[in-house]
Fold each of these.
Amino acid sequence: MSTRLSKGGRLIDRSASQEFSFNGKKLRGLKGDSLAAALLANDQMLLGRSFKYHRPRGIVAAGPEEPNAIVGLGRDGRFEPNQRVTTTELFDGLEAASQNHWPSLEFDVGVINNSLARFLPGGFYYKTFMWPRAAWKHLFEPIIRRSAGLGKAPTARDADRYEHTYSFCDVLILGGGIAGLQAALVAGASGARVMLLEQAAHWGGRAPVDGDVIEGAPADVWINNAVQTLAALENVTMKLRTMGAGVYDHGYVLAEEKVADTTPGDGRPKKRLWRIRAKQIVTATGAIERPLSFAGNDIPGVMLAGSVREYVVNYAVSPGDRTVVVTNNDDAYRTAIALVQAGLSVPCIIDARSTVTGDLPAKARAMGIRVEAGKAIAKVKGGKRVTGVSLCAQAGQGAVLEEISCDAVAMSGGWSPVVHLWSHCGGKLIWDKTHAHFRPDAARPPTGADGLAMVVPVGNANGMMTAADALVCGAKGGAAAAQAAGFSAEAKAAVADAAPEADMEAVWIMPQGAGDALKAKMWLDYQNDVKVSDVQLAAREGYTSVEHTKRYTTLGMATDQGKLSNINGLAVLADALHEEIPQVGTTTFRPPYAPVTLGALAGESRGDIFQPLRKTPMHAWHEKNHAYFEPVGLWRRPYTFPRPGENHEQAVHREVINTRTNLGLLDASTLGKIVVKGPDAGRFLDMLYTGVMSTLPVGKCRYGLMCNEQGFLSDDGVVARIDEDTWLCHTTSGGADRIHAWMEDWLQCEWWDWQVYTANVTEQLAQVAVVGPNARKVLEKLGGMDVSKETLPFMQWADGTLGGFPARVYRISFSGELSYEVAVPASMGLAFWEALHAAGAEFGAMPYGTEALHIMRAEKGFIMIGDETDGTIIPQDLNLGWAISKKKADYLGKRGQERNYLASPDRWKLAGFETLDGSVIQDGAYIPSAGKNANGQGNTQGRVTSTYHSPTLKKGIAMGLIKGGLDRIGDVVEFTTITGGTVKAKVVDPVFYDKDGEKNNV
Amino acid sequence: MLILECPYCGVKAEETELTPGYEAHLKRFGPGASDEEFEAYMFARKNPKGVHFERWRHVYGCGKWFLAARDTNTLEVFGTYPAQSSAPPAALQDKIKAKRPDWKGYK
Ligand SMILES: [Zn+2]
């Protein structure tokens, strides 16, 4: 069993007991424990089930590489799925629950998948995708959905808050082990601005666990001194619990700081996302131990040797009473020694190397520990917990020499540098044969804006595997980074005692000649249930690329991201392909190094401040008058103003009828307004619009269309000629910024010799559409300028005052009614709006919203950008050829429109539609036609683009695109319905209301 | 995220302050151009692993468009210059040639 030892534990405080729960069971741990240590202290080794076969899964590691021990933490608004117990700090009141088991952790019916294992080989997902669809839908998906998958997404709103913070430094050091500390001491002494980030809750990394001796004293002494020295330097910032998640272009680094994980609800942000710009980055990210591939290496109780040692030294927790150590290197002997020193039993060290000579083995032997050289584990015994191992020769096929009973196995397949952060931005790797690992290739570093190296790897992360080498490397790296950032630094390193270690021996399968039965029990990836046999099968099926094999077998996917499984997996692949490991290469390392909470990435961008909102000067009035808002770009516009007892549809219909019979007022302030001015402004607008704007007389308005260079319609609006060299261009509400940028692009980058200035004055002006038969009356009542038919006819504008407000009045109409759009300075918008309502009361004035606007424009057959257009529509498709100048030699989009397929008579064109039964055609409906296309799909001949119930005409009306367009008037066609049926509709003229324009001609 | 120096206002702008405008030094083909010319202008874009000329706009800054020469592979930035340039400045071309002897020119 695993238990708490009576002595030791450098990180725990035995006087501070903390209560927590696991699956509802109350347990006790100690302050300083990781959740993993506290669980092990309570003999809770079994923590979950594997993804595919639901095999029992226990703790394997002690850090972020942990593949199995992943739990849900907290509850309700503070529930977090998929949290590693190894990187979770214990606190009083912590609640944890296992995941991926059904119905219970101890008894899991998913284990039945074990007997289906031969039906679930590597590539299972891909193969089933090619099986009949019905089988996937009715058979595989329900089974997989219930039995597979990790934690459940939280359903409650996140009760915590998160924040982003920005920082800049000369030298950013990622990792606070001895190499990182040493680099920080050197860089800090140079005067450079240094940031030192460590993902764990303590400094020093593994050195104290390994028993390293620095400057003649235990590593802890040197670490404490270093931390104190650095803390006293004003130019050094140090952060614990802060993980460097990703290294990006030009020294940009993302890091996630755990701020209030152990003090939920204390008011501080739970996590803080650091967005750092560094001149130089030092990766001191350490190394991760590799498992060994022997049969049963996934049974709970089989752990990484270095992790076993870490639990004993840091937390005084023993994973087992009798621990067999299995290794291919000297380092694992430290675990055996630590276990025996802690009073525990190590029945045997199984060493795959045929000759074992180093200092550490000598020390172990001197302590009386049995060492078996040239041996291997044939098989681990046990179900939910290790009960023993069978010993065999590494060189053989697994013939059992002896059974050894034990309750834990500490394995070490060697150590792999954590190269993730080095690799994120392009750093390349070389294969180090001595250590059988990939390490950073200093000759091919990630480079910055100056083309020079921007990342310096140090310590274990650079393949320097002893404390002595790591310190020297750390000092050199710290100095190199400081120098590259413009400081002079001296690479002075602390000296560590260097006990020589014998070479490790690469062992990828144990025993070497293992047969199929054993290989089908050798797990490479515990989380994704990928075994040696799966990778070999993938190779036999023709997967030669490591990237393809990864996706085919799911090796190293999900949260592992190549931390534990990478090297072992690609060694097996290389062997199966009869290639060398460096030729097969590694998969790509992508950020984040370890998962980052989505809340941290979102930061403060949630709820009301998810994005900036644009509000018109009348916005507060709309809110007071119960407007129901809809988003239009970043604007919020009233969709309708429902009255008590009305639903939205009733409110919209009332607004339409009232506008058409009395007086409607629309807040049109969001309409884009761009001033274009200068000697070449007319010439410029003639290029921008499909029509001619240069000939527009001062005082007049003209409707215009803008296309992109492909010829597709991009925006529309009314242009007013203000004076000899000034035009005001109205754009759609959502298009103002885009069109302004479009204008600037052409002016700055193509026609930079043209003298034209543009200004987006959208927010400088409030605009109100005064619409309906009583529109003139209300303006005349306000008084101040002549708005008569004679003085201000349709498509003209005039400056003046209305009710004392300085106003520019455009006589334009988007509804077909008598209509004025009145612009006043934004600061007067609300007062003007209120004055219109007060004066308009006797004329039946009512505000109306965007939906009434849409219905009225559809009743008139006016197109709407985004409804009738979708980026593939040319003006000619919408019968807008009249707005295209035939005389102009050039305009943006002209050449694009000349492409032959855009002139094809087969193109769908705009027409109106009325259902025979008066119903409303559904949004998105298609018009099917006979036959099938080349893909076997039903043919179509058109689709609806705008469809409404017209309260004016009391029936459904629609606009849409149909092959043949207006030539089809009178035809009866069928539109699809969402339920699979069709509805008959007649093709009609798209102008449904007041075809002769008499309403406006007053 | 790249950092590019705006040649107008001198700000070393982070990518979040900028809007990309894709390939620089394109020649516009309008009415009268052949299908091939129009296709080249509209659709055929360089996608080199190496030296590339790009358009960027300092949109959350001075609002100016500028051009940048950089290596898409190493992320080295050779220089930035105003959009009102028919060709990269000679000094910049010399600098790139010196650093990338195999470079075939910006066209
Ligand atoms: Zn600028």
Note: Residues B 6, 8-9, 11, 58, 61-62, 64 surround zinc ion (CB under 6 Å).
Amino acid sequence: MRIGVFVCHCGNNIKATVDVALLAERVREGFLWGASSVSPSVSPSVSPSASPSVTSVVFSADYMYLCAEGGQKMITDAITEHGLEGVVVCACSPRMHEATFRKAAQRAGLNPYKLEIANIREQCSWVHADKKAATDKALSLAKAAIAKVKLAKPLFPGENTVEKRALVIGGGIAGIQAALDIAEAGFAVDLVEKTPSIGGKMAQLDKTFPTLDCSACILTPKMVEAASHENITLHTYSEVEKVEGFVGSFTAVIRKKARGVNIKKCTGCGDCLAACPMKKIPNEFESGMANRTAIYIPFAQAVPNVPVIDRNHCAYFKNGKCKRCEGACQPKAIDFSQEDELIAERYGVIVAATGYEPIALDAFGEYGYHDNKDVITSLEFERLTNASGPTGGKLLRPSDGRVPKRVTFIQCVGSRDATARGKPYCSKVCCMYTAKHAILIKEKHPETDVEVFYIDVRTPGKSFEEFYRRAVEAYGVRYIKGQVGKVIGENGSLRIQAMDMLENGRYDSVTDLVVLAAAVEPSADTKKIARMLAAPADVNGFLSEAHPKLRPVESATAGVFLCGMANGPKDIPETVAQASAAACKAIGILMKDKLVTNPCTAKADEDLCNGCGLCVGVCPYGAISSEGGAFPRVVCVNSALCQGCGGCAAACPSGAMDLQGFSHRQITAEVDALCL
Amino acid sequence: MPVNIVAFCCNWCSYAGADLAGTSRLAYPSQVKIIRVPCSCRVDEAFVLRAFIRGADGVIVCGCHLGDCHYMTGNHHTKQRMEALFGLLEFMGMERERLRLEWISASEGAKFADTMAGFTAQVEKLGKNERYAGKCFEAADAETTNTEATDTETADVEAMDVEATDAETADTETTNTKAAEDI
Ligand SMILES: Cc1cc2nc3c(=O)[nH]c(=O)nc-3n(C[C@H](O)[C@H](O)[C@H](O)COP(=O)(O)OP(=O)(O)OC[C@H]3O[C@@H](n4cnc5c(N)ncnc54)[C@H](O)[C@@H]3O)c2cc1C
Ligand code: SF4
Ligand code: SF4
């Protein structure tokens, strides 16, 4: 077998620590396959033609950038000129460019699976400083790749059809935008939202930085558009319970929770709300600063504008008596007998947009959030200044309804906090929304003194710095660099004890209202959703992108896309941009009729299989069965279902099951090469 | 002689974690050499044993954290298999510390580098793997030749492997004689 080895310099990235010319030369030294005529160090170098029955490296060369056009051409030319039957590329991680090089091989008529990568950048030159050691290791890795490729069989991908329907999980601005873009491209979309209305956190916000346009005014038209779009089906008050399958053909089971109200009959008049006797339930949308009834519409502009009966608080569901709402409802929409409905649907792609929550403040006792009514979170503040909020937009203290004379903002509550109670990351939006809150107060009450405690003020973003400066210069907001140690309730006021780091002294004063910029974290269900989708999440629980720079809206799981806060802290403009990008990637798949499948699937040898069935139990996808095989009990693998984990191959006691592309013999050969 | 370490890393988490260690330039000992497998559950006990008899001084198997497996349940099988393998190593009289199982996610570049440095140090403390290295070549080769017997597609590969087998057998004999002399 005639093998060619190509060594990349990657500019200086590899060349600085690995002697690339020496490597290109030494891969030609025979190890397992004898023949060791080393030609002088000219690259590229071609060895005297080897006898056809012996595997040998007949061509090797090093090159500045193999992934560039010239490098790829060098590979394709060598394949044709030297009749290469196997290629090893010593370069960056296969996660970067395996596909690039395999495509190049294919152009030259070589089966793409006859090309292997030796990762000598991420796993060698970048992590070892000693040139000799790194070169030795690179040689080992190259030899392992050669050993693997010499046993490679040509593989041919299959095809599977694409279900032309998208599932979007989460109906915040991210999910709404992604759904609209996919729907506009002509594909059916199911938008699943857990709560009774779409809108997410943005629906709770008052004005938005840095332009101070009203959040509801820009969001509600989009919510209505999503609800009325002919290609979008809304599933509100619903959750995804189960996801199976793979890109192009996922199957999801959606639980539509019983609303107790017939969506088709309800006119949204709200008569039932007035009739409900259970009036003292904390209103989630108002962050608990107002009450709601047991049958409720979460907020005035909710989409759909249809109430839900909260069964945990409803008198009928608790005690079997009441049904007043039913009496009040003229269109007879109330339906106490409604039950959860499970629907199963097939999808080609899935967009995860499950958003965020502010962290709970139980561990931050020093700020007295649970002890003082006048210590609130920033999200509560959004409701407090909102014209549709509990005070009609008047800035009034929750405790006594007075206008505060002084307001103190504390930033980074739990953000940039590496201790167990906090989050190591920056929540990104707090500096800007705090400046926004300060300006909003000053516009309504110029006489109110506003102070902000900060660690750093971070304003990267279009018009962000200007916005912050306006708060300081035009509105006279006082920014104090330092951390607050304690907030103590004192005769109806709040005493602040802090360190002023610029004055290098203690700060002790009295204020009327304290607003805490609590860190954000992924919404509670993110973990569950990540598992369901087999989509990796990072150490902080945010869904990970397939590549932090080059594939920012894709999950590592093919066909799953990410957007919004579910992927990491970001503001609305970034969320919308990411949602549109995710939609665009999703559309790219939906446009195709067929997708090629990964040919690295398992395959059972009928002659060796003893029918023990151990592999059947191991396969997470139910891909193995004894149906359709040549003999009873002898198994065969459904390659459309097999995802290629290889668990079955390791479980098989009779050596009948093997994984193509990562065969028993190939891995054994790699082990041998590395241990030489 | 420095110790030699074979690391099996699953494509989705640990291999990506190793790449991240690279992009973040977090150094670890160069004796650690990685074999990429789709899932840690692809790692057959035979691969680990093969590495030991070929002279590896330590083998580390890395997968996604339990519950985060790209193939849903793959790493649970890995865990079961490796736990059994620890027992087998002890039974064989080999230090179980030469084998390690770790869960390293794609975002844990630092954990990858630290783990590899820690494991290398641990294996260095044990020294070279002399008890089994090179001892069972005959058995292993017999096994390879068997599998090859069923393989008629690629004549060149076979021819080559026969050649290799011969060379290895010769190798084994010398090792065996040496071992005999030691006794
Ligand atoms: C106090 C505060 C002020 C802010 N002010 C501004 C501002 O002025 N300007 C700005 O640009 N940004 C601002 N932001 C940031 C802004 O809120 C976010 O960027 C934006 O809301 C992110 O949208 P999203 O759709 O990703 O997440 P979310 O708004 O959280 O939406 C996620 C949706 O998914 C749903 N969901 C969760 N789990 C599931 C599940 N399992 N199944 C189905 N659905 C689920 C949720 O119910 C929710 O509807 C502010 C943030 C805060 C905390
Ligand atoms: S039945 Fe339940 S929801 Fe309806 S009015 Fe009574 S308490 Fe309210
Ligand atoms: S490799 Fe085996 S266990 Fe894994 S998905 Fe395919 S058939 Fe199932």
Note: Chain B has six helices and four strands.
Amino acid sequence: MSTWLETFFVQNGLIVAFLTVAVIMLVASFISRHLTKKKIPDSAVAIVLGLILAYVGGKISSGNKGIADVSIFSGFGLMGGAMFRDFAVVSTAMGASFDEIRKSGLIGLLSLFIGVAGTFAVGAGLAVAFGYTDAKSITTIAAGACTFIVGPITGAAIGAESHIIAISIAAGVVKSILVTIATPALARSIGLNNSQAAMAYGGLMGTTSGVAAGLAATDPKLVPYGAMTATFYTGLGCLLCPSVLYYLVTLATR
Amino acid sequence: MTIYGLGLLAACFLAGQLIGEVLGRLIGIDANVGGVGFAMILLILANDKLQRKDLMPAATQQGILFWSALYIPVIVAMSATQNVVGAFSGGLMAVVAGTIPTAAMFFLIPVLSRMRQPKEKKS
């Protein structure tokens, strides 16, 4: 592309992202209506299209921020970044009821501890099954199974090797993509149709991006409840993984 | 005015995120602990209070509702910036560690959401 045109699109990056996403939504709604007969909601199709775009962008640029690494689409970095995402998530609280949250607050709290400890335990078991024997690697991989933030923070805190940290980040990203895609497909069979279930779900899954996208594709009304608990998960994971859980792993591997 | 609603949302967002940052620092970890959650609780409470006092006209609400209507497009943009290539290049260990524990937790959702059932007999 000629340089002045590229500069033009880069300078208006955020607006380019607005337009591109609008087109994605339009295409998604067409696919949902005509190719899946509305069986797959348009938001789910749009999110999958986004993931495909991220794959293409990653292949073209060999960066790690998906389509945002392609210069004319750099505005995606801002529009899809943590600031805009969290701002939009908070705004959904307008439709949430405080009573509902208070009623199932305890289940939300319980789901957080079960979510972090359970995911860590299964992750640690798998790391052992894959032949890792040192406590640092096992802990870091298991922490990566929690979220792609808990993994590297834990790995850095306990001094794991960098390729192990890379695996832990990748595991967290795989999880976030899996939660995004699997949630709308499994929502009915796991009873994810009320605010309590959404709070338990947010605490068990924990990956804010996956939970936010998965619930958006399932039922936007549930988003605030899932996001509410999920937002505490990464913090709890960063607290427990490099401390108590790491200690337990060192005991087990001794 | 629409901007009042946007301002209220911004105030709740910043206050909540700040609480999350401070909480993270207090317990000594390099992460925001529940910032979004605190911001949401603040917004719910503020909205409730203002509506009771009739201080939330439709135009003001519009400043917040605009953002919640943009929620899905923002999530689509976020999906498009995920490191999908990286997720597959972490090898089998990463794929297995990302899927199996998550699948296990999925099965616990009905267990946890059923736990409240006895209390909710009235429906």
Note: Chain B touches chain A through 77 residues (CB under 8 Å).
Amino acid sequence: MTRIDDTFAKLKAANKKAFVTYVMAGDPNYETSLEVVKGLPAAGVDIIELGLPFTDPMADGSTIQLAGQRALEAGMTLEKTLQLARDFRTTDDTTPIVLMGYYNPIYNRGVDQFLQDAKEAGIDGMIVVDLPPEEDDELCIPAQKAGLNFIRLATPTTDEKRLPKVLENTSGFVYYVSITGITGAAEAQASDVAPEVARIKSQTDLPIIVGFGIKTPETAEAIASVADGTVVGSAIVSLLENGKSVTEVLAFVKSLADGAHRA
Amino acid sequence: MATELFNSFMTGPDEKGRFGDFGGRFVSETLMPLILELEAQYEHAKTDDSFWAEMHDLWTHYVGRPSPMYHAERLTEHLGGAKVYMKRDELNHTGAHKINNVLGQIILARRMGKTRIIAETGAGQHGVATATVCAKFGLKCVVYMGAHDVERQAPNVFRMRLLGAEVVPVTSGRGTLKDAMNDALRDWVTNVRDTFYCIGTVAGPHPYPAMVRDFQAIIGKEAKEQMMEAEGRLPDTIIAAIGGGSNAMGLFFPFLDDTSVNIIGVEAGGKGVNQKMEHCASLTGGRPGVLHGNRTYLLQDDDGQILEGFSISAGLDYPGIGPEHAWLHEIGRAQYVAITDKEALEAFQLCCEKEGIIPALEPSHALAHVMKIAPTLPKDHIICMNMCGRGDKDIFTVAKHLGFDMKI
Ligand SMILES: Cc1ncc(COP(=O)(O)O)c(C=O)c1O
């Protein structure tokens, strides 16, 4: 049982949907980013996705690309991202942290070393965008063995034939990408998402969390009501991009969390 | 080296799209079904005679193949050693080898019912070739090009627009070729139904490295026959420049099992591989990593962040290299060297003066290495280099470096 499994068990007992947020580690700098992350649980966030900055985020739209660039320019690294998790864990030992990013910085550190360090830093799981099931031997299998969740994306292009393969080595939860496209793109429609969630549910007992293109408390509520929870990323990151204060960012997060929890 | 362990060097990639440890399919889930479909369609087309008949017809009547094999007599005499031949792929329609591959991919796209073609381009040669073939077939064409390259390759931008393509200047990242490739991939995940991504080199996720190689291998197949005709034997050394590695793989592939043939790939050494990363020599100065769908040698920092390369040649300005080259390097079947901007410029000028051929800056790198080794080799040593592009697109850059005012 990871913190992720615990969190979903508690939410289920309370009959509540999960609210998940994505923020880029180190955006716009280490201190501000740590302050935001530390404030997320009190704002109603159930699971934190922590973005690992990378120079070439090929599945991300401009908001998250620029957040990564700001973080890298401010000196962010994989090591400092793990440090941010450690610092967060000094004040919070229950909220799950999922590292989300691309494979190269992890591969560069060495998979075994990374898994050991991530576990020790209090990371609970990971989403690595450029590791499909076809490359499971790289990180997915070793991560599961190390007791970390490997959360996979299912997408509108994941057809019936492929779905079992996508679900096979997934743990923690399934992240359903609501649109074909990159982060921060068009607004998702609950009516499109509902049948897709049902399709995935028929093949797995894992919770289904829906993300990409969710920007308002209303959409968060609508999407969460047809799934087990929802993720918001770019809409939060863009506040940091526009120079909003930590207090303003967290107030917006709270409005989104309230929306998702109404579902 | 371990080359004696292999029965053949021509069997790769394996079913996981790997050449040894390199290659693979490191893409997001949204793209995975698309590249599996592409692989299935390509595997089918590859064994379909009508597919190759269409290719050969267009290669002959539209591109102008076979390209000549030319004995560079005055250059040979000047260098005073090995006998130098040039495979004249710069005479192809659109002025480079790029169109060999584009034709293959566009014929495949048409068979798959795709109506919108996207491409990335650095120097603009792949973009021009793609725009050209799209015009010929009446397909919509969108070309992603780094904003920095849009500026330094203005004539090619205009050509693409004349040919009806939409050129999108890419400002994400640092606005170079790798960023153009990122944006093309972002377009593809967004437009999954009607769009075909036509990659310009032997990189990207499987099946691209193998597919692009197979389309470019016409260069090496012709070269082999032409050398047999001209000399009654194979060359001793074959040499090509490497950006992503497609013209090189095209020349090298048919020779891989002819172990008497020395194979040399020439990377862009920029200001020198010893200085801090002001070059694009991924094999000489990089280490293995994962980018753009495959594992290969990359220019990267200690944190695994990708670095921008530097080269006078926009076509070689890529921080990675095709995975098959990474494998050939590791097993020692091919040798990889670096040539600086300065050496390439010298070769560019010598080729103009001695042979009446204005080469592109990319093959000028290969030629610069020929200039280095030919004088040290006996007169009966035969070198074949790939003259993969003509220099029309580069005259502005070269004029600037030689201090020549083009306005006069
Ligand atoms: C003439 C020419 N040669 C070489 C290259 C480099 O590509 P590759 O290594 O794939 O042949 C380019 C790319 O634009 C080019 O235009």
Note: Residues B 96, 122-123, 125-126, 201, 241-248, 315-316, 360, 362, 388-389 surround pyridoxal-5'-phosphate (CB under 6 Å).
